[in-house]
Every structure is written in structure tokens, then in C-alpha cells.
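Researcher: We plan to redesign the surface later, but first we want a full-length starting point. C-alpha cells attached.
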């Protein structure tokens, strides 16, 4: 097949609202129903797709397909025949849990301003509340994109799909926690490369990922790391927060955004060919409902993120962790939790190639969209220097190298997944030892 396909990262695992499932149509077995042209939720997927670019890591992925080989056709048939009952039962339990957690955000806000919880309780509750809020933002942008077409839809997904991490980063800039900002961004890239892909391989087992698309995503990440070195090296000799480094970060950020826009534009051109051929009515949320939910969820996320950032330092000191470790490991995992679950469920349903592409595209989007967006928007608050520490650059490069070696040839297995998870644990230990920047 040569038509482009839009894939929602969160929806395969996270149809939370039971009433919406009836509106969206339940299909025969998750993603496999799309074989016959049907649609489950907002997911459209075919296993002959090979090249992915994420227009919003919790939103749509523009997939640039190639002609499927005979082995790929066999893989499709095998994957489609897997019994889904156990996995669908797990998804139903997960949906109920996440739906219940949606109340944590408003509850936390009321308790924070009315009673003043301790920093430890506030941080834990805020971290838990961000998980369903991240899903809700991604879900609402996806439904809004169904009504606006691929161009505006891609913009909505890119802007609001990263809203939780973007809000956390900008609030940390406002509080002067620059190491927390850089740590959370570094941890997000590494988490997608190692943790998300690792658990996806463990869930999916043996399979074949598209080697070419993987090389493209890894090449984008490698280019971003190379550009990060320029402002970072300026801070290695001392005074990492000086104004000159923040100024030098501007052209680096612009170049990264140009790369992102270029790749996204090519993906959207392919996707538009599919969009004009579709005569199906949209059975999801209305545009008005989607925008209202998006607005409310974003406001609540901003308030919850404010509590999270405000309690981060005191929480870290009470539990004996550095601010950098909390940001690079805990905050990064929380900010990506919704899409982590989505990628793992996709892999468990037999779509291992798609899950791998989601992980790589997610890491690439953080590197070439979220990092420069934070650096440029920070000038409205307080200039941010992209002066990553040596340990951050080294761990980024090491994570990419481990993925490149482990995924050589495109073959997947549970053993390779455990290798990636072990590598993530090793990097987390390095971050724990490194602690906060001296001085």
C-alpha cells in the first residue's frame, strides 16, 4: 500500500471514557480491525507502514509507507491472528484506573490552596495527576485533528501533545531551576530511547522493525546531540548560565526547529493524500467538545505542574535525592507515562515495528522540537542556556549508541528489550551519582 496512515499514540491503550467507546465503535480486536477498513477509536494502522514521524507524541504519527514484502505480509497475518482477550481485559482495567485518576488533579489543587499539604505528598500526588491529564490532552487534540485536517491537526498535536513537559519546563525556568529543565529534557529523550523501547520489545517479543526508518530517526537525534555540544561546551569551562551561552542557544534552537518543520512537512504531504480519499463521517468527539476538554485539561495541567515544580526541591531534599536526578528520571517518566503505556500496548498486540517507530519518533521530537521550543520560549521569562553537562551529553550519546547496536538489522526480541532496560537503569545510576551541578 502506498497511502499514508495516521496513528494515535495514546488511543490504542487509553480509551478511558466508556461512553466514547460506543461512539467510536469497538471493532473486533483493537488495531487488527483496521485490516478491513474499519476503525477502532481514533486509530488507523496498517502493518505495511515503515517510516514514522511524530507530529505530537501523544497525537498523530504521520507514517510514510513502502510496498510490503512477502515476509511483512506473513507478519501481518500472524499478528492479526493473536487472541486479544487477555490484552483487552488488561486495557479495560487500565482505562478504569486512569479514569479514576482524572480526579486527582482538581483534588490536588483544592488541597494545595485550602490546606497546604506537605511537599512530599504534593509532589507524589502531582506526579500521579499528570499521567491521566497527559492522556486527556493527547486524546482531545487527536479528536480535534479529526475535524481540522492534517495540517492544523499536526500543529495542534505538536503544540499541545507536549504541553505537560513544556509547562513543567517553563515553570522550572521561572523558578530558576535551570538544571531541572535541562535534566527533564535529557531524561525524556533517554527514557524514550531505552525505557519505552525496552518495555515495548519485552512486550512484543520477536519481530522485525523497519531498519531504514530507525536510521532516519536515530540520525535526527544524533544531529541534535551534535548541535547540543556547541552551547554545552561553552559552559564546561565555567559559568554555564552566562548570557552569552543563552544567546548562542538561539541559532541552535532555530536550526533544530527547521529540521523538525521540514520532516513534519514531508510527512503531512504524504498524509494529506489519504485524508482527501476518506469519505467516512467523523464519529468521535465534536470539535467544540474537543477544544473545551483541551482547554480545561491544559489549565488543570498548568496548575498541577506548578505544584509539582514548587515542591520538587523540598521533596528531593527530604528523600535524599538531587534535583537533577528527580527531574531526569522521575519527572521525565511521569511526563511521558501516557505514551509509554500506549507504545507498550501496541507492541503487546503484535505491532512491534510500530511500537519501535513510536519510541524513536518520540525521542526525536523531544530533541528537535521540545528542547528548542523551551529554549526560545524561555526568553519570555528568563533566558535559558542549553549548557548541558558532560554527563548529560555523554549519556545521550551512550543511549543512542546502545539502541543502534541493539537494534542492528532491525530484529527485535525480549532479550534485546531487557538489554535496553538495563542500560536505562545504568544511566539512572549515573545520574544519581552525578547529582546536581557543583557551584
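Model: Full-length starting sequence:
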Amino acid at each position: 500500500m502506498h497511502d499514508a496512515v495516521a496513528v494515535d499514540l495514546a488511543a490504542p491503550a487509553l480509551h478511558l471514557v466508556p461512553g466514547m467507546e460506543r461512539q467510536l465503535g469497538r471493532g473486533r480486536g483493537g488495531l487488527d480491525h483496521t485490516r478491513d477498513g474499519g476503525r477502532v477509536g481514533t486509530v488507523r494502522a496498517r502493518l505495511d507502514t515503515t517510516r514514522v514521524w511524530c507530529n505530537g507524541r501523544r497525537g498523530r504519527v504521520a507514517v510514510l509507507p513502502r510496498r510490503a514484502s512477502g515476509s511483512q505480509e506473513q507478519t501481518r497475518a500472524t499478528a492479526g491472528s493473536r487472541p486479544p482477550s487477555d490484552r483487552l481485559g488488561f486495557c479495560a482495567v487500565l482505562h478504569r484506573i486512569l479514569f479514576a485518576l482524572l480526579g486527582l488533579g482538581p483534588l490536588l489543587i483544592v488541597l494545595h490552596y485550602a490546606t497546604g499539604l506537605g511537599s512530599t505528598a504534593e509532589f507524589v500526588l502531582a506526579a500521579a495527576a499528570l499521567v491521566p491529564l497527559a492522556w486527556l490532552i493527547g486524546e482531545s487534540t487527536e479528536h480535534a485533528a479529526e475535524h481540522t485536517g492534517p495540517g492544523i491537526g499536526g500543529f495542534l498535536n505538536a503544540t499541545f501533545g507536549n504541553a505537560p513537559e513544556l509547562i513543567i519546563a517553563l515553570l522550572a525556568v521561572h523558578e530558576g531551576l535551570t538544571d531541572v529543565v535541562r535534566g527533564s529534557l535529557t531524561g525524556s529523550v533517554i527514557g524514550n530511547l531505552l525505557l519505552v523501547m525496552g518495555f515495548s520489545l519485552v512486550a512484543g517479543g520477536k519481530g522485525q522493525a523497519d531498519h531504514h526508518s530507525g536510521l532516519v530517526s536515530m540520525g535526527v537525534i544524533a544531529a541534535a546531540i551534535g548541535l547540543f555540544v556547541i552551547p554545552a561546551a561553552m559552559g564546561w569551562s565555567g559559568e554555564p548560565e552566562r548570557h552569552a551561552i543563552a544567546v548562542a542557544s538561539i541559532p541552535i534552537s532555530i536550526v533544530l526547529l527547521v529540521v523538525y518543520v521540514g520532516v513534519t512537512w514531508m510527512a503531512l504531504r504524504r498524509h494529506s493524500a489519504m485524508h482527501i480519499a476518506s469519505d467516512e463521517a467523523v464519529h468521535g468527539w465534536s470539535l467544540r467538545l474537543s477544544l473545551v476538554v483541551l482547554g480545561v485539561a491544559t489549565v488543570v495541567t498548568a496548575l498541577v505542574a506548578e505544584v509539582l515544580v514548587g515542591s520538587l526541591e523540598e521533596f528531593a531534599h527530604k528523600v535524599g535525592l538531587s534535583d537533577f536526578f528527580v527531574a531526569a528520571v522521575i519527572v521525565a517518566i511521569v511526563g511521558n507515562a501516557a505514551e509509554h503505556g500506549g507504545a507498550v500496548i501496541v507492541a503487546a498486540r503484535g505491532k512491534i515495528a510500530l511500537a519501535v517507530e513510536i519510541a524513536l519518533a518520540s525521542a526525536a521530537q523531544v530533541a528537535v522540537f521540545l528542547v528548542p521550543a523551551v529554549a526560545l520560549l524561555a526568553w519570555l521569562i528568563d533566558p535559558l542556556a542549553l549548557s548541558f553537562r558532560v554527563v548529560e551529553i555523554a549519556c545521550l550519546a551512550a543511549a543512542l549508541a546502545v539502541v543502534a547496536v541493539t537494534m542492528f538489522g532491525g530484529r527485535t526480541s525480549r532479550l534485546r528489550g531487557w538489554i535496553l532496560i538495563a542500560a536505562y537503569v545504568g544511566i539512572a545510576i549515573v545520574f544519581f551519582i552525578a547529582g546536581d551541578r557543583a557551584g
